[in-house]
Amino acid sequence: MEQKSSSVALVLLFCLSLSSWHTTEAKHTWQEAFKVLGISWNPNGTLNRQIQIPMVDPTPYEDTTPAPTALSQDIYLSPKSKAYIRLYIPLNPPKNKKLPLIIYLHGGDFVLFSASTVIFHNFCINITTQFPAVVASVEYRLAPENRLPAAYDDALNGIFWARDQALGIGGRDPWMEYADFSKVFLLGSSAGANIVYHAALRAMDFDIRPLQIKGLLLNQAYFGGLKNTQSEIRLKDDPYVALYVNHVLWSLALPRNLNRDHEFCNPISGGTYLGRVNRLPKVYIKSDFGDPLFDRSVQLAQFLYNNGVTIYYRFNAGGFHGIESQNTTAAQELYDDMKYFVNNPFGTSHEGISDQPLYNDMKDIVNVEKTYASS
């Protein structure tokens, strides 16, 4: 009886923590946001996630039906937890060339989905085949059961796993023989892009050699702040990332004593990372004008540029949050951008210093490449 009472109290505490934004978003309630998200409270304070996007098993063998376009397997990181890496390699990886290693963090607003969710599984397959690359997709813990920085810690553990693979600690998985540990990129979509940013900065506190993180790829990064941006106001009733839903999601993801101007949510607000930002490698930032989070990506790009980080960006007209999961043309444009970003040094000198401007529009770069290829 005592355990049941404490569980009810826990749910009430969660509900009260969500009420702080209610006065500024008076037209909506957190119950409405939960309905949109397809979530509800369980009696023990965990979430019941009702959105039925299929989850798929890995395909470690070629002789399966339907025939896979890339191979995948799940590697569990600890017998005591559910943490795992979903690892991908091309069907016919090159024999005489190592492939870049992409460490991927999926989207889902910190609250939803999994590395095995079909849209992210297929995304990783496409990256694996098109780049080509070895892709390690990290399964991370979700909020509110595990609030931030739990997801950042799990991403770091994914980086540590890759480091240990490079060192051969505990043996090396045969598929990782195809990976170039000197050419590692961190890629994330939506909340995954937020995780990538924080994991890259946190990794600076550790010796991850021989891994060399050469770049970050942030696709429609999920950031926020107490002061709403113009794009958030303009698109406050967006069907994908409505402002009131956004505020509820941050109430679930952030530690209870923090607000949306903490660096977990608002990376340009200051915080503990300021002395490290200028040490980041090159960064690709992609966003769409039809995404309420558009201004957050523009602000981040300018912030990183002001800190001396080399930025490659694509800011599209139109679009919406998650467009690449529904529009094959937009998806292919994203794949092409990322492939070029990963496989080209962008004029970096032998000393590792860029001899191009710090702020670069991918549209201009791709157009020049197409003109050169057709001439």
UniProtKB/TrEMBL annotation:
InterPro entries: AB_hydrolase_3, AB_hydrolase_fold, Carboxylest/Gibb_receptor. Keywords: Signal. Residues 1-26 form the signal peptide. The keyword Cell wall biogenesis/degradation does not apply. Residues 102-323 form the Alpha/beta hydrolase fold-3 domain. Pfam families: Abhydrolase_3. Belongs to the 'GDXG' lipolytic enzyme family. This is Alpha/beta hydrolase fold-3 domain-containing protein.
